[in-house]
Design a protein that fits this description.
This protein has 597 residues and is of the alpha/beta class. Helix content is 46%, strand content 21%. The structure holds ligand C2E and magnesium ion (2 copies).
Length: 597
């Protein structure tokens, strides 16, 4: 029994120490706001010594002091007794009191002590507001009340300082720093327990920017006011609501069945939407809610918020009210992000990008007519990344332009090298749809050709039909300009997109490359083969040269030749290979002819 009581005291002291540590007061610099109170105490009671004394593990440390040093041992210190009892303490003569006699204070000539406890709202006594004198003296009840008042002023100052930086001024709600602290506290008290973080994301960034552009910053203030007002009732249910970023609020829920949590949140969401409607907000915010389950102590507060934000983004993208955090989509997002960052680095640094070349074969003669340059990326950590993965990412960002510039430069420099070695190879370079929307694309092409002294007739540009979806007029003008320079144009992946022969009529191109989806699995005599034969015939009738991509078997190659398809490209002849291997392949040139024969 005695043992368990002792343990409880130990626990209480541990909690008290934690409360003290969290206030970040110990060993901090003197501050005028506290010193003012100590000076006042000294004057008020005519005492030569006064202090704001905090009880640390084994010492009394003085946050503010008049007439004494910075700390004394906790043992036999009257302030430690104030902390222990959480009571006002008056000692007329320390030297005559067995509890304190022999302690450092009476030993150094201090006789009188009066101290009022410094107690937090949660009931933890941090230390004492005390006055001391070198003479034994009395202390009236009125003086005692004044000292208690001063202690309350010290506590108000401590709590004010603590709240500063922990409350979001615009909403008056605890902020992200408080969220982090509370998660850490919870993790300490309930390690390993499951919780769900909920994030209310008030508005899509683009929508918000648009609304603020029209309505000014007052819109954001109003949105914050309405949202914090509507979400505040959650606190009555015992859930703190935190204002974690300008337009985001978060809460932590105990683990409960997701369905039940959604039901409860639907109520809060309803209240929020209702409040927005009645507030006269000029633009209704699009609110998305993200749920992120996590285990206390296993995930940092930052990671919890990031997951909940991610889930809210998922909800927004899916046009749903709620999104549940998914590690899979998160990983995919993170990889995409890492790849984009990696692409930027790869464009700055040497050695990550390279080009491989895949020959194109004229079916009638069996000769190699040129090669397609294909980009390869060796990421320093992730290894080889397929262009099928990184090219679309580059195309969704601002990287399509520098990436194509890199490829063009590398291909033209290779062509010049080959020319010097007496090899004339026509090279096709893939460009992104966005490149064909660039005003100066033709000019840049011409400049690059001149820089490398390569004749335009040796270069071909490949692009997909998606280039024609937007800015059609701009793209068509650019293509006309490119062809006028003497550069051939090929429509890549024909048949997969928006292909319609009516499109082709006004598409300035020389060549059509039938997508490998039609070719790889082609079975002569099947419906698919009829389709391919028709595409070849029609394209040729319209005056295009036709290339079949993805030719893997001799059977398919023979079939294409029988349809009068002009050229073929595929693993049957060669995989895309580094330039030196391509040259070797060319030198052993009979290979292709043997297959065609
Ligand atoms: P694409 O331009 O249609 O290139 C043909 C793709 O098919 C290449 O994939 C090639 O390796 C593959 N291929 C060729 N023959 C065969 C075959 O017989 N069987 C099979 N299964 N596949 C074959 P790769 O190199 O992975 O490139 C994929 C796509 O990435 C390219 O399709 C192109 O759209 C894009 N890409 C590659 N390099 C560049 C570049 O430098 N710039 C741009 N903008 N896009 C590029
Ligand atoms: Mg291509
Ligand atoms: Mg293709």
């Amino acid at each position: 029994m005695k043992n368990s009581l002792k343990k409880t005291e130990g626990q209480i002291e541990a909690e008290r120490m934690r409360a003290l540590r969290e206030l970040n007061l110990i060993d901090t610099a003197p501050s005028e706001s506290f010193d003012r109170i100590t000076r006042m105490a000294s004057r008020l009671f005519g005492a030569p010594i006064s202090a704001v004394s905090l009880t640390d593990v084994d010492r009394q440390w003085f946050k503010s002091r008049v007439g004494c040093g910075t700390e004394i041992p906790r043992d036999k210190a009257p302030c430690a007794e104030v902390t222990r009892s959480s009571d006002f303490l008056f000692v007329r003569d320390l030297a005559a009191d067995p509890r304190f006699a022999g302690g450092i204070l009476p030993e150094s000539g201090v006789r009188f002590y009066a101290g009022a406890p410094l107690t937090t709202k949660e009931g933890y006594t941090l230390g004492s507001m005390c006055v001391l004198d070198t003479e034994p003296r009395d202390f009236s009840e009125e003086e005692a009340r004044s000292l208690v008042d001063l202690a309350a002023m010290v506590m108000a100052q401590i709590e004010l300082q603590h709240a500063l930086g922990r409350l979001e001024p615009s909403s008056g709600l605890p902020n992200r720093a408080q969220f982090s602290e509370d998660i850490e506290d919870l993790a300490r008290d309930h390690p390993g327990e499951a919780r769900t973080a909920v994030m209310f994301d008030l508005a899509d960034a683009a929508d918000l920017a648009q609304a603020m552009r029209v309505l000014g910053p007052a819109y954001l203030d109003e949105l914050t006011r309405v949202a914090s007002g509507a979400l505040r009732p959650m606190r009555d249910e015992g859930h703190d609501i935190y204002h974690v970023s300008t337009t985001q609020f978060a809460a932590i829920f105990p683990e409960e069945e997701e369905k039940r949590l959604r039901e409860r949140l639907t109520t809060h969401l309803g209240a929020l939407a209702e409040a927005a409607r009645h507030s006269g907000l000029s633009a209704t915010p699009g609110i998305a809610v993200g749920l992120a389950p996590f285990r206390l102590g296993e995930t940092s507060a930052g990671a919890v918020l990031r997951s909940a934000h991610h889930a809210a983004q998922d909800a927004r993208e899916a046009d749903a009210a709620f999104g549940l955090y998914s590690a899979t989509t998160d990983e995919a997002h993170q990889r995409r992000y890492a790849l984009l960052e990696g692409l930027r680095a790869a464009l700055r640094e040497e050695g990550q990008f390279s080009l491989v070349y895949q020959p194109r074969i004229e079916l009638a003669s069996g000769t190699c007519t040129g090669a397609e340059a294909l980009l390869r990326w060796n990421h320093p950590e992730l290894g080889a990344v397929s262009p099928g993965e990184f090219i679309p990412l580059a195309e969704q960002s601002d990287l399509a332009r520098p990436l194509t510039d890199w490829v063009l430069d590398a291909a033209l420099s290779q062509m010049r090298g080959w020319r010097h070695a007496g090899l004339a190879v026509r090279v096709s370079v893939n460009v992104s749809a966005a490149n064909l929307e660039e005003e100066d694309f033709g000019l840049r092409l011409a400049a690059a050709l001149a820089r490398h002294s390569v004749s335009p007739s040796w270069l071909e540009i490949e692009f997909t039909e998606s280039a024609l979806i937007r800015h059609r007029a701009r793209v068509i003008a650019n293509l006309a300009e490119i062809r006028a320079l003497g550069i051939a144009c090929a429509i890549d992946d024909f048949g997969t997109g928006y292909s319609s022969f009516s499109y082709l009529q006004d598409f300035p191109a020389d060549t059509i490359k039938i997508d490998q989806a039609f070719i790889r699995t082609l079975v002569p005599g099947s419906r698919g083969s009829v389709l391919v034969a028709s595409i070849v015939a029609m394209a040729r009738d319209l005056g295009y040269r036709v290339v079949a991509e993805g030719v893997e078997t001799q059977e398919v190659c023979d079939f294409l030749a029988s349809c009068d398809c002009d050229e073929a490209q595929g693993y049957l002849f060669s995989r895309p290979v580094p330039p030196q291997d391509f040259v070797r392949w060319l030198a052993a040139g009979g290979e292709a002819e043997r297959r065609i024969a």
